[in-house]
Fold this protein.
Amino acid sequence: MKRRLLDLSPIELERALAERGAPGYRARQVWSWVIDRRAERFESMTDLPRALREELNESFEIFSTEIVARSVDDDGTTKLLLACRDGETIETVLMAEEHRRTVCVSTQVGCGMGCVFCASGLKGVVRNLTRGEILEQIVRERNQLPEGERVSHLVVMGMGESLANLDELLAALEVVCAPAPLGLGLSQRRVTISTVGLPDKMRKLAELDRRYHLAVSLHAATESLRDRLVPISHKVGLGAVIEASDRYFERTGRQVTFEYVLLGGVNDRADDARALADLMSRRSAHVNLIPYNPVAGLEFERPSEDAVNRFTAILRGRSVSVTVRKTKGRVIDAACGQLRRGTAAVESTLL
């Protein structure tokens, strides 16, 4: 079986080519062709000897996934359904707005956290993605952009719990944030890692001397309600999640964002807003309210506009920094909480 090229670091690729008698600079050429020059076939790497291109084609594959479907929303959001080598499928999203080009990537096939309102975990988790499979999503979405446009932001908010696959994610991000031509040249400050709240992994991330932005999926401000909405919470506790978030801010100086999906009649009441304001009190944190995006087969409803406005006003009245996330990609099931594995749930344009 061919090796995944993007599962290797540039140094590892150099060693692999050295075993074939190729000088070290050939590895840098190959890597820059894929990462910087958008090559998707070894044949197009015209400054490499033909014999080496043929050998690379026999031993490696640039992309180990296949684009099964591509969906485009009226707002410009694009979703790719990718089939992995083992037949499993994942989804990745590109959101375009003014000068921003934001890619949302998945880190697992499915998700094991079991948030009761989210489509990604309906069938549980199958496996972690490799660093190459994570990086490949970003490169594929970048290659969809017109020549000259580049990815400006990355959000790790797709399928899966990001920190449950932290090592592979970090390896992919090393390439994302490395300078061109061997990296995508994205600032660490423009990378957001979302987590449901795994305290041990949050503390590990805090100690790495990185400047990634951390977004914690809170969804409730009391232990009892969060246990209902986020089943993993009863194992770790809301207090431990908040403590680890505080630690992240202390170590990195990066303000933590708390994501809060508003579910109509469930966690969008005035009492819920006041409890959240109490939790945020005296913290350098930001709350991102996300009106629920409906998922077929789940009974939750999107909150009314009045409920969203009331919730927001209560937080602001208590001096809590808060925004309401603009919904993008809902028509193609690409909005927050709507990604799922399997082709049956995808309304798309087949390529």
Remarks:
- The first strand starts at residue 3 and ends at 4.
